[in-house]
Specification:
501 residues, alpha/beta, 5-stranded parallel β-sheet, 7 strands, 7% strand, globular, binds flavin-adenine dinucleotide, binds iron/sulfur cluster
Length: 501
């Protein structure tokens, strides 16, 4: 029986899974573009364009190599499979393990054989084994830091034997600096990629009810261009990566972030080639250890860790809501209309680029959703629609676990809640804001500051038992204006719902 290799839109790489061993003279390829999925929600234009255009470019590349590619535009993924089976009964459909829970369930239901995936550096079964081993050794926790150190040794990255290069595993304390006062143009502007005929075709087909700015070439849609972005990052940006990783600036949307997540997530780039390129630049003396370590930690540490957690805790994980957060998604997330300058700036970045950086996601958007009590599933759905790099395996742990504490602290031991003081320290947003980050009551009080204290007060009994936030939880009950804070918090939430904050 001949073989048809099913390739998902986030597996666009010739060197992974079944495709790695495929032969154009023997194997065909099946790719399915689901019109139902495209029409299912109000996607950000750039997200949809990136996803679909990358798929069509990849199909064309495979054809160029001699493969017969069955690129089916159908109403649903399932229909595509059924149709293909009907028209090619002689060919067995096989696939590399998909990256999402639902896709794996679907393939199981329709009887498609899957092969182990090597798209990540750590197969999730190996991650679960590592967790079990630690438990077996008597450890109660399996922290990212412990996972990351063993990854460095196991993968031989930035180590001499079992010793970390530079003498330390972690240079995080050098990487938490507030934004510099000036020199905001020190971080090179990311290159733009030209939009070819395939890109234009996809743009012309975008549904009317999409959101955000039109694609203008910020996001590459081929492997060749993604490699160019990687080279640009390693040569020009990596030497600056780190010190201001957590900073947020009005006049610079990217700082020293790599902008590589979309390609890592859809397969145009693989994690090993990315960290190898970074390590080579370090070994050649072009990058300081603190910068390269900070970057490598994100890729072989955080990224692989959330991938492992997703598979260990699904399918229940995505539904968790430990803090009973029941506020419907407020209109500000969809219309961007607010006087909170930090929120407006972050939403502007998303509107312009379908992207915002980690601290904007965690400490502006996530922080607001956490302290206001927005429903985690509604918030996850919104983020999945508007971020160019969204994928369930990475969105769910980052939102449900890290940002919204909706897993009750399984992933992050403390809630990432803060008032305006942190945002003021790490950004220039507060200077241009209607609200006063120092006030927690009154009409001009910073909503973040009010909601922070109200959050600790509302969840006092839970957090007073958490050593990392117990002091703040206790302090909330000692506020002499607690009654006014509670009142102002009710008003803030009402204005959020009304869209008048
Ligand atoms: P850089 O700052 O240059 O970091 C390098 C790489 O490290 C990233 O490309 C990414 O692959 C990896 N990385 C860093 N932090 C994380 C993390 N916490 N989890 C997983 N990978 C990480 N990342 C996504 O790829 N898709 C998402 O849908 C996504 N949703 C998020 C939602 C929330 C609420 C939060 C707090 C974080 C989310 N992240 C997500 C993680 C992180 O914010 C992005 O990976 C990063 O901002 C992407 O930009 P970059 O490539 O310039 O990253
Ligand atoms: Fe954001 Fe508050 Fe600062 Fe305004 S004052 S920018 S709402 S943190």
């Amino acid at each position: 029986m001949s073989r048809t290799i099913l390739v998902f839109g986030d597996q666009l790489n010739r060197n992974i899974g079944v495709l790695a061993g495929a032969d154009p003279s023997r194997d065909a390829v099946l790719m399915i573009e689901s019109a139902g999925k495209i029409a299912s929600t109000r996607w950000h234009k750039q997200r949809l364009h990136f996803y679909v255009s990358s798929m069509r470019h990849f199909a064309k590349e495979l054809e160029g190599e001699g493969f017969t590619v069955h690129y089916r535009k159908v109403s649903s993924f399932r229909d595509g499979l059924v149709e293909h089976r009907r028209s090619h009964p002689e060919s067995e459909i096989v696939a590399t393990e998909p990256n999402s829970w639902n896709a794996r369930q679907l393939l199981r239901r329709v009887g498609v054989t899957t092969h182990r995936s090597d798209q990540f550096l750590t197969h999730h079964e190996d991650f679960s084994r590592w967790v079990d081993d630690r438990r077996g050794q008597g450890y109660k926790t399996f922290k990212m830091e412990d996972f990351y150190r063993q990854q460095r040794i196991r993968l031989g990255i930035l180590v001499d034997g079992e010793t970390p290069v530079g003498g330390r595993w972690n240079f995080d304390d050098e990487n938490r600096q507030p934004p510099p006062r000036d020199g905001h143009d020190r971080w090179p502007e990311p290159q733009r990629f030209s939009l070819d005929a395939i890109d234009q075709e996809v743009i012309a087909e975008l549904p009317d009810d999409t959101v955000g700015a039109d694609p203008t070439g910020t996001w590459a849609t081929t492997r060749e261009d993604a490699l160019e972005r990687l080279a640009f990052f390693v040569d020009r940006v990596l030497p600056l990566f780190g010190p201001h990783e957590d900073a947020m600036l009005t006049d610079n949307w990217h700082l020293a972030h790599s902008l590589l997540s979309p390609y890592l997530n859809n397969g145009l780039l693989l994690p090993r080639e990315v960290v190898d390129a970074a390590e080579r630049a370090f070994r050649a003396g072009n990058v300081a250890i603190a910068s390269v370590e900070g970057f490598v930690r994100q890729i072989i540490g955080w990224r692989e860790y959330v991938w492992g957690l997703y598979w260990m805790w699904m399918p229940g994980y995505r539904e968790e809501n430990a803090l009973d957060a029941d506020l419907d998604l407020p209109p500000v997330f969809t219309d961007g209309d607010t006087r909170m300058n930090c929120v407006a700036r972050t939403l502007r970045s998303i509107d312009d680029y379908s992207w915002a950086h980690h601290i904007q996601r965690l400490m502006i958007l996530g922080n607001l959703a956490l302290t206001a009590g927005i429903n985690p599933q509604q918030f996850t759905n919104w983020m999945s629609r508007v971020f160019v790099d969204a994928a369930e395996w990475v969105m769910v742990p980052n939102v449900v676990g890290m940002a919204l504490h909706a897993d009750g602290g399984r992933m992050a031991t403390k809630p990432y809640a803060s008032g305006g003081a942190y945002i003021d320290k790490m950004s220039d947003y507060c200077k241009g804001c209607t609200y006063n980050r120092k006030l927690r009551t009154g009409d001009t009080a910073c909503p973040f500051t009010t909601l922070y204290w109200d959050f600790l007060d509302r969840h006092h009994d839970r957090f007073v038992r958490n050593a990392r936030v117990a002091t703040q939880a206790r302090a909330s009950r000692k506020l002499d204006d607690l009654a006014e804070v509670r009142e102002r918090a009710i008003e803030v939430r009402r204005k959020l719902i009304d869209g008048t904050l």
